[in-house]
Q: What sequence folds into this?
């Protein structure tokens, strides 16, 4: 007997996950999605406002997960005490593990789960993929909705005949002939997996999705428990501007994405936040720290309070150092130069120097 599959989506407070919740709710209303939010206790007020706006639009609750729900203090401070003041960093992301991953895995338990991930079609990354066999990631914003491990399995040379057989059950005539010609060329240095996937997509993304779905029924992937899956017909590829359009038409763009103008030495630039997550996220660029200092001085002061006993948020530089007038000026000047260089190739009013577009919504970048 097939097990009941749970469909889940983590809301980070950032634009992509918010837009994905709206996208699934509006386009696939029959999907019973459980929405959840891992609350670190250190989010911007705008994040909590977005959560409330999403609840109203979705007409559905968002489950709040707390990594230290039995503690008398918020989850971040609870674990900071446990780690004796050792601040998280890119080399020691205990905050991601304790405040995001562990609460999520406790939430889903051993149930078969399809986790919807808000990575766009213009991003070349996978994000965090759970290694638990009961959790399968699906990417609705991409033309390729399948995770890398699924594609590796489907396009494995030893599975050429199995996949060809699935196509034979689905197609006929000239279209089948063209697909089989493509399918039966092994992956090699001359015919990379990426090129083969692109060629099969060009012959029909929905057809490819149906073939993968049928093939996975013989595996232990959670989707094997589903008799049907509506996203098989999904052929959309949504990019950054599409996400902003979704938000503008519904709950609005989170305030911290809106560019704020500044001027230094007669030159003007703009800054904003490129991610959601804790206000003191160590993944922030230095210009974002300046944004926090000037736009939310109270939160910047709180972030400074955590820097003690030799621990700092930024490698080789403290927050006290970064707000010296000459340092602020240099950071702003460098940022203006980056914006000028970027605007030559990407002319977007939402361009805010997102560092190869790896904004990735803070901890959600390395999460779900």
A:
């Amino acid at each position: 007997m097939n097990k009941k599959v749970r469909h889940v989506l983590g809301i980070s407070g950032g634009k992509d996950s918010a837009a994905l919740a709206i996208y699934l709710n509006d386009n696939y209303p029959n999907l019973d999605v459980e929405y959840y939010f891992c609350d670190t206790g250190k989010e911007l007020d705008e994040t909590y406002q977005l959560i409330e706006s999403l609840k109203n639009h979705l007409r559905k609750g968002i489950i709040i997960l707390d990594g230290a729900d039995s503690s008398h203090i918020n989850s971040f401070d609870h674990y900071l005490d446990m780690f004796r003041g050792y601040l998280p960093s890119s080399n020691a992301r205990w905050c991601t593990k304790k405040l995001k991953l562990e609460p999520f895995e406790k939430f889903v338990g051993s149930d078969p789960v399809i986790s919807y991930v808000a990575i766009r079609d213009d991003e070349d990354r996978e994000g965090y993929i759970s290694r638990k066999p009961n959790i399968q990631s699906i990417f609705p914003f991409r033309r390729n909705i399948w995770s890398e491990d699924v594609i590796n399995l489907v396009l494995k040379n030893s599975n050429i005949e199995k996949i060809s057989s699935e196509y034979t059950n689905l197609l006929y005539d000239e279209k089948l002939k063209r697909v089989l010609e493509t399918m039966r060329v092994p992956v090699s240095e001359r015919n990379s997996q990426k090129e083969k996937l692109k060629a099969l997509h060009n012959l029909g993304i929905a057809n490819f999705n149906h073939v993968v779905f049928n093939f996975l029924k013989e595996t232990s992937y959670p989707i094997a428990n589903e008799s049907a899956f509506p996203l098989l017909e999904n052929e959309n590829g949504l990019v950054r501007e599409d996400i902003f359009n979704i938000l503008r038409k519904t709950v609005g763009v989170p305030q911290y994405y809106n560019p704020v103008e500044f001027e230094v030495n007669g030159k003007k630039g703009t800054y904003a936040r490129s991610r959601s997550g804790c206000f003191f996220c160590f993944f922030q660029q230095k210009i974002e720290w300046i944004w926090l200092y000037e736009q939310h001085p109270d939160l910047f002061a709180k972030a400074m309070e955590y820097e003690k006993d030799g621990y700092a948020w930024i490698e080789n530089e403290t927050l006290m150092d970064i707000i010296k007038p000459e340092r602020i000026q240099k950071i702003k000047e460098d940022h203006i130069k980056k914006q000028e260089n970027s605007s030559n190739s990407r002319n977007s009013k939402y361009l805010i120097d997102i560092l190869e577009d790896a904004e990735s919504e803070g901890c959600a970048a390395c999460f779900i």
